[in-house]
From TrEMBL:
<comment type="similarity">
    <text>Belongs to the HupF/HypC family.</text>
</comment>
<protein>
    <submittedName>
        <fullName>Hydrogenase assembly chaperone</fullName>
    </submittedName>
</protein>
<dbReference type="GO" id="GO:0051604">
    <property type="term" value="P:protein maturation"/>
</dbReference>
<dbReference type="GO" id="GO:0005506">
    <property type="term" value="F:iron ion binding"/>
</dbReference>
<dbReference type="InterPro" id="IPR001109">
    <property type="entry name" value="Hydrogenase_HupF/HypC"/>
</dbReference>
<dbReference type="GO" id="GO:1902670">
    <property type="term" value="F:carbon dioxide binding"/>
</dbReference>
<dbReference type="InterPro" id="IPR019812">
    <property type="entry name" value="Hydgase_assmbl_chp_CS"/>
</dbReference>
<dbReference type="Pfam" id="PF01455">
    <property type="entry name" value="HupF_HypC"/>
</dbReference>
Length: 74
């Protein structure tokens, strides 16, 4: 099973961006998308694979938070 996680681009240098995933910041390759700082992207295996609408991204991140909370409760 593969998961693609949404995050916010907070910095860009050449083809590498720093993406914030709810406070966790990671380097992500941006070769496949045309984005700017502040955009949300879907990331899979270290590559941004799609630009995402901010509203959809925030809704998706809320669902992730809920899923992680449920997992912590077990």
């Amino acid at each position: 099973m593969c998961l693609a996680v949404p995050g916010k681009v907070i910095e860009i240098k050449d083809s590498v961006g720093i993406v914030d995933f709810n406070g966790v910041k990671r380097e992500v390759r941006l070769d496949l998308v045309d984005v700017k700082v502040g955009d949300y992207v879907i990331v899979h295996t270290g590559f941004a694979i799609e630009k995402m609408d901010e509203k959809e991204a925030l809704e998706s991140l809320e669902i992730w938070k809920e899923l992680l909370k449920v997992q912590e409760d077990f």
